[in-house]
Structures are given as structure tokens and as C-alpha cells.
Amino acid sequence: MAPLFTADHIGKSFHLRPVLKDVSFTLSAGESVLLFGRNGCGKTTLLKILAAIMRPEKGQASLNGQALFTPGYRWRSAMVYLGHRANLYPALTARENLSLSLRLRRQAWDEEAFQKYLDRYGLAGREDEPVRVYSEGMLQRLGLIRLELAAWEIAYLDEPTAALDVDGAGLLAETFRRWRSMSRTILFTSHDLGWGVAQADRALLLSRGVIADDMPRPGEKDLVARLGREA
Amino acid sequence: MAFWTILVKDLRLELRTRESLATMVVFAATIILLFAFAFSAAPAQLRSFAPGLIWITYFFTAVLGLLRSFGRENEQDAYDLLLTAPLDRGAIFLGKMAAFFILLLAAQLVSLPFFILFLDLPLWKAPTAFALILVITDLAIAAVGTLIAGMSLRSPAGETLLPILLFPLLTPILIAATEATDAVLAGQPLEEWDFWLMLLLTFFGVFVLAGTFIFDYISEQ
Fold first, then answer.
1. Which residues of B79-106 are buried (b: 16+ CB within 10 A; e: fewer)?
2. Helix residue ranges, H only, chain B
3. Residue B12 confidence (pLDDT)
4. A12 SS3 class
5. With a cut of 50, which residues of chain B have pLDDT below it?
6. What is the interface pTM, i.e. ipTM, of the complex?
């Protein structure tokens, strides 16, 4: 089966120091893939490049055979991104933030779905408060509702559990399973390797600017041992 | 569509917080009061430096507004929401430019009475001419400012980079606005100072076109 997503020879430097040298990998539809590596290895940079927030110096990527990083913008409708921070405007309410997000994607507002996800993520009754009063965990949950409401094929999530409590992490694991059953593809990072491997079909080790290993269904100990060998 | 969404979003954020408007108006009022009370200038002297004073005040007022307009995009990395959306990034530029233009104009309308009251400037004698200069200069400042702020404030050294890039580009706009205001205060007819309006309109046109077409490239890190 042809891969859904292909990244070819992606490279990026900061102040002449190459962070990504030659990153290539593929993802299949419905796959959940953990991107792991030491601090500063370029995980966030890679996700930001794929999400069109940063521009690569070299390389190309394609989704469903359609080239990414092109001057047009329609290719961005197939993907969503949730960063370290929740990508929300603190002065706007939860409802206004998510409504804005959908308008930018030219999607109609679905009040019923909004209420359903507010309930699921434990934010019911807080939707008309400005999100500046939310805790980091609540912001992260709202960021996940943003992804739930959007239509997409591939999601890039950078440390999605970083601000979540145990319940939140469990909820996200359930969400990952649901997304995969819908043939949605997920590329994510997590320093919580135990949680990460439990959600991943594969793990990609990013080290020294390249994908140093591609590990199908790894265990947490395998990842820790592999990271140790890279040190 | 995306243009309106960005414009409404920026205005809603400002109405909700009033951070930019309050900072801009307080700054402008402080400068005016400082000049009014620190220098006991005769009316003739005042008339000679008033056009420059007006535009220097609004120059820094605009910079404060720009810093806030793009600063709030960096809170919670909200700007990434705009960048990852399937929209023409030229619309981000145009929407933010239009919102900043309205904000700058609002700050000026609130602070202009201070100029008239404390510095006794006869701006009310030619209200249409002065309004024309104000609107066209603000359009030019908004176009140049939004493009440069969009480019520089994505960089970690953005707040240092912004004045270095922006001040030289805004200088010709300030000179044109000052010359046109001077002519209006001297009671000259439009034919005597329309050159400066043309210059301002040229700046506006060039930077709107540039911003619309290159914002896609410059907004990515």
C-alpha cells in the first residue's frame, strides 16, 4: 500500500548549525507514530516544518501524493497541529477560540459536537470564560477539542500530555484509538515514553539530524536502551 | 472571508482587553502634556514645530501598537493557528493591517483634542484636509508596519529587530506627513502639497502589494 505521507531529505539549520540534516520517513493511513529523541535533537522543529510553521531549507514532503511546502495553501486543510502551548488567544473565550479556528478552516460551527467534546474533556460550563483563566491542563484539553472539531487526515502533536493529569492522559489515549479507527494518522512527540509507546504503532528515533531508527511496536525499555546507545 | 475573520478577531481582542488603545493614548497624551508644560513656546514658534511634533508622537504611538498587535499573537503561540490554517497568508497581512489602521486612527481621534486644547493648534480650521492626511498617512504606516512587524516579531530578537527595520522605512512617511500638515496649517491649497499625499499613497500601494504577495514567505520562521 502506498504511504499516506512521505518526508524526503528534509533539512533545517539555525545560525549555521544544522538541526535537521537529512530526515526521510513515511507514514501510513491510520498509523500512530511516536517521534522521540534527546532534548534539542529537532523534534519540535520537524513537526513545525511539517505543519508549515517553519520553512525547510531543503527537502520535500507529500500527503496523498500532493506536494507540501508549495506556495498554495489548500494542502494545509488536511493537517492539524497542536504545539507545546495550546495555540489559543487568551482574551477570547473557549467558544470564540474554537469558532475562530473553524472559520479559518472554512468549516461550519457544530454546537452539538462542541458541547459533546466539552463534556468529554471536562470543560462543560466553562466555554464562555476567557481562556486566560484556564490552567495549562485545561488549555491543553481545549486544544484537543479544537482538533476534535476540525476535519483532517494527519495530526502533528508536540508533547500533547505535557500539561495533562492522569485522567487527561487516559482520555487522550482513548482519543488516539478513536482517531486511528477513523484512519487518521498521528505523528507525536512525548517525553513520557511509557505513555508514548502505548499509543504508537512505530517509534522514530531522531538523532544527529536524521531518523536514526524506525522501531515497530517497541517497548519502553527498548526506547530507553536505544536512547542510551545514542548518548 | 479570511481577511474579515482576521480583522474581526484583532478588533475583538482589542475591544476585550483595550491594551493597545490605552497604551497608545496614554503615551500620546503624555508627550503632548510634556510639550505643553515644559516649553513655554510662543504661538508662532509652536506653529513651526507642531507638524513635526504631531507626527513624531504618532510615529512612536504606532510602534507601541504594532508591538502589542503582534505580541498577543505570540501568547500561547496563537499565531501558529493562523499559519497552519488553509488560507492565503496575504489575508493575514491584510486583516492585521486593516485592524491596526483602525486602532491607530482611534488612538489619534482620542488624542487629537489634546493637541488642540493644550498646544492651541488650529487643526479644526481645515478639518477635511487634515483628516485626509491622517487617513492616508495611517494607511501607509499600517502597511509598512504590519509587513515589518510580521517579519521581525517571529524572530527571537524581534523586539530589537523591529525598530531597526521599521524606523528607516517610516522616515519618508513621516517627512511627507509633516510637510503636508505644515502646508495645511499654513493655509496652502491642496495643489501646493498634493505631492506629499501622492508619495504617501505610493508607499501604501507598494507595501500593500509587497505584503500581500510575500507575507506567505516571511511569516514562516
1. bbbbbbbbbbbbbbbbbbbbbbbbbbbb
2. 2-17, 19-38, 43-74, 79-84, 89-118, 127-152, 158-185, 190-218
3. 95
4. strand
5. none
6. 0.92
Distance CA B60, CA A200 (A): 52
- At position B159, the amino acid (one-letter code) is E
Sign of the CA dihedral B178, B184, B187, B191? positive
Provide the shortest C-alpha distance from residue B67 to chain A (in Å): 16
Pairwise CB contact (< 8 Å): B75 & A103: no
Interface size, chain A vs chain B, as Cβ–Cβ contacts under 8 Å: 88
Does the beta-carbon distance from A87 to B2 stay under 8 Å?
Answer: no
Question: In angstroms, what separates the C-alpha of B89 from chain A's closest C-alpha?
Answer: 8
Three-class SS of residue A144?
helix
Amino acid at A12: K
Q: Please report which residue ranges of chain A form alpha helices under DSSP H.
A: 43-50, 94-104, 111-120, 136-149, 166-181, 193-199, 220-230
Task: Give contacts of A92 with chain B, Cβ < 8 Å.
Answer: 9, 12-13, 16
Helix/strand/coil for A72:
coil
CA angle A196, B83, B140 (to 5 degrees): 155
Q: What is the pLDDT of residues B146-157, one digit of tens each?
A: 999 988 877 777
Binary contact (B77, A74; C-beta < 8 A): no
Percentage, residues of chain A above pLDDT 90: 82
User: Using a CB-CB distance cutoff of 8 angstroms, which residues of chain A are in contact with residue B84?
Assistant: 51-53, 76, 79-81, 87
**pLDDT score for B183:** 93
In a mutagenesis test of the A interface, which of B73, B79, B80 is the best target, namely the one with the most A β-carbons within 10 Å?
Answer: B80
Establish if B41 touches chain A: CB-CB under 8 angstroms. Answer: no
- Cα separation, A132 vs B17, in Å, equals 11
Please state the rounded mean pLDDT for residues A19-24: 96
Whether the per-residue pLDDT at A1 is higher than 70: the answer is no
Buried b (16+ CB within 10 A) or exposed e, A169-208: bebbeebbeebbeeebbbbbbbeebebbbebbbbbbbbbe
For residue A207, what pLDDT is reported? 93
The residue type of A120 is R
What is the C-alpha separation between A226 and A30, in angstroms, rounded? 26
Return the residue of B nearest to A101 by Cα: B81
- State the pLDDT confidence band at A202, using cuts at 50, 70 and 90: very high
SS3 A10: strand
Cell numbers for B159, please give them. 523586539
Q: Rounded mean pLDDT of A15-38?
A: 94
Shortest distance between the Cα of B188 and any Cα of chain A, in A, equals 47
Mean pLDDT of A188-200: 93
